[in-house]
Amino acid sequence: MKKLLRILGTILFLLLFVLSVGPFLVLVPPLENTVSARSLAEEPSQFLTLPYPGTDGLDIHYWDSETDGQNYLLLHGFASNLYTWDELFPYLAEQGRVASYDRIGFGLSERPLAGSWQAENPYSRDAAVSHAITFMDELRLDSAILVGNSAGGSLAMQIALEHPDRVDGLILAAPAVFTGNGAPAFVVSLAETPQLQRIGPLFARILATLEPPDTYTAVQKERAAIGTKVDNWDVALWEFTAASSQFDLESRFAELTLPILVIAGADDTIVPTEQSIRLAGELPNAELVVIPDCGHTPQQECDAAFNQAVEDWLATLPGK
């Protein structure tokens, strides 16, 4: 019995040693052929320095139609960027003023590294809400209809809950509410350990190898991957992932009484279509549109049907 316990103790010691020391022995080769974000920008790209406590400001890449009328703010999802709105942006620009931006760590916006901030982590969910509101302030958007895809949809809902006076309505494309709405607290704590911080960028590189939908055009695929050409994109993607804690949306559905449109692709395998149907049924004032033969990014994969759904919904709003 004592011999067995010694063997089990030795195995446990070796396992703990491997888990605690092993990650520091893993080779993390430097990225190759990456460039500055601004060098990749094209028209109509603009940049602004977004004020954020504990930093010298955050460099934000954005588009602004600078047209008149109803304001729209577009929020992309995880591992995406503002180019996901290529097909929707010009349509909404005909309806009013539309703005979109790359969230911190994505697209061509800044990728702050650990140690470069002295206040709240700029990759946190609360920071994401703060970024959105500050961005609206910088562009002098008193309020807007928020349009969010996937994780951008859950962010739009969180903004509406915390700043209801700044949100006129929500258009949620396959919103990640029941699935993918951040990681549990223990996972976030684990991700912040020195061991996972060491090898986290390798996990981020694996995430970047995921292929976009076959329905994407060559241009859409290239623009979806533009963030992987930017310096330190892997470290930033891991920082974002490690800070992505869950936010309790479900218990607060009753507070979201503003007009809401939920649009889902019938073939969505990322956020199952049934979850979008459930969400629309549980929100007090939501309409649902399910687009046949369409996946997780209906605004790109099925843009004509998506834009028509938006047009029909906007026509039902007061004052239209």
**Helix-residue proportion:** 25-40%
Percent of residues in beta strands? 15-25%
The chain-level structural class is alpha/beta
| Lateral arrangement of strands in the main beta sheet | 1-2-4-3-5-6-7-8
Number of strands: 8
Q: Indicate the radius of gyration in whole angstroms.
A: 21 Å
Sheet with the most strands? 8 strands, mixed
Distance between the termini: 80 Å
Give unreliable regions as ranges: 7-19
Oligomer: single chain
Explain this structure:
- The chain has helices at residues 2-25, 89-93, 125-138, 151-162, 185-191, 194-207, 218-224, 233-243, 273-282, 298-301, 303-314, and strands at residues 46-50, 58-64, 70-75, 96-101, 144-149, 167-173, 260-265, 286-291.
- The chain is α/β, with parallel strands linked by helices.
- Strands 1-2-4-3-5-6-7-8 form an eight-stranded mixed sheet, with helices on both faces.
- Helix 1 packs across helix 6 (194-207), helix 3 packs across helix 4 (151-162) and helix 6 (194-207) packs across helix 8 (233-243).
- Mean pLDDT is 89; it is low at 7-19.
